[in-house]
Amino acid sequence: xxxxxxxxxxxxxxxxxxxxxxxxxxxxxxxxxxxxxxxxxxxxxxxxxxxxxxxxxxxxxxxxxxxxxxxxxxxxxxxxxxxxxxxxxxxxxxxxxxxxxxxxxxxxxxxxxxxxxxxxxxxxxxxxxxxxxxxxxxxxxxxxxxxxxxxxxxxxxxxxxxxxxxxxxxxxxxxxxxxxxxxxxxxxxxxxxxxxxxxxxxxxxxxxxxxxxxxxxxxxxxxxxxxxxxxxxxxxxxxxxxxxxxxxxxxxxxxxxxxxxxxxxxxxxxxxxxxxxxxxxxxxxxxxxxxxxxxxxxxxxxxxxxxxxxxxxxxxxxxxxxxxxxxxxxxxxxxxxxxxxxxxxxxxxxxxxxxxxxxxxxxxxxxxxxxx
Length: 372
Known about the structure:
It contains 2 helices and 28 strands. The chain has helices spanning 2-17, 345-348, and strands at residues 36-39, 43-45, 50-58, 62-66, 71-74, 77-78, 81-89, 98-106, 109-117, 131-136, 156-158, 172-173, 178-179, 182-183, 185-188, 191-199, 202-205, 207-210, 217-224, 231-239, 250-255, 263-269, 281-286, 295-301, 305-310, 313-319, 335-343, 360-371.
């Protein structure tokens, strides 16, 4: 009996040990720390924009993202060993250098790599004797969540208006820079973008004005204009105490219509000289790459004359006749600055509109005011 009990105990013990062929339980292993080597260790790109190659060496799989829209990276992932990665920067429109951050990630591990880009070299066309008194550089950072900043309402105000408000234009000017999810004025990558876009059956856009006004000075902006039939961007001035057009005057520093590529225009309007009567005083200038490159548009306004410039070259002049008549010279009171992107209308739409060009983007690098 005792022998039988011993045999049963042995069988039970063997059964509890299981088969020798069963897999052993998996023991969790600590993750392997991914290590990266990036060559070159630093990189600085030209302000004109360019593509460079980085050699990324890692001991595991990884992904990479850029935190700036002006810098793209391809491919966006790699694996164990060496990977050639191309980084491509668009041109930097502003004078200030800028940085982008590449973030390499693998599981819980990651490193960052900074890409620098030089600022643009911008010619100085300001006449001698003038001092900077006001400036807007549009360098605001993005908001929380990555949304673009809007124009500073302490410095700018919006005009809201329905289609047909002036010049039979087709756009709706939106207050506040956006309507719903449709943004028409946004600051990112160092410039203000005024955007004409289609929303349902409407064309939305923006028209913004400075809160400050000035009598006489040198007024300039660095701009890149959109093309296509229907676009009508402008940089211009109106009197602070405006009551009646054209009696109170208007100064058009730059106007552009997309159906006439690479031709810009500067004008003045008064009671005696205006486009309704076809007596306006105006001039045009053919330039290169108005829609793809930034140019500096300016007027010098004194008690004696108004001159229009593009990239420092004078192409328009209107002299004070010194008759003391507001009908011919209303330009002795404060004026404020205006930026807008119209769609269609008597001039912008005189050869039709092409909605395939929407959204259209009018880009403003800076606005500056100088006085003596």
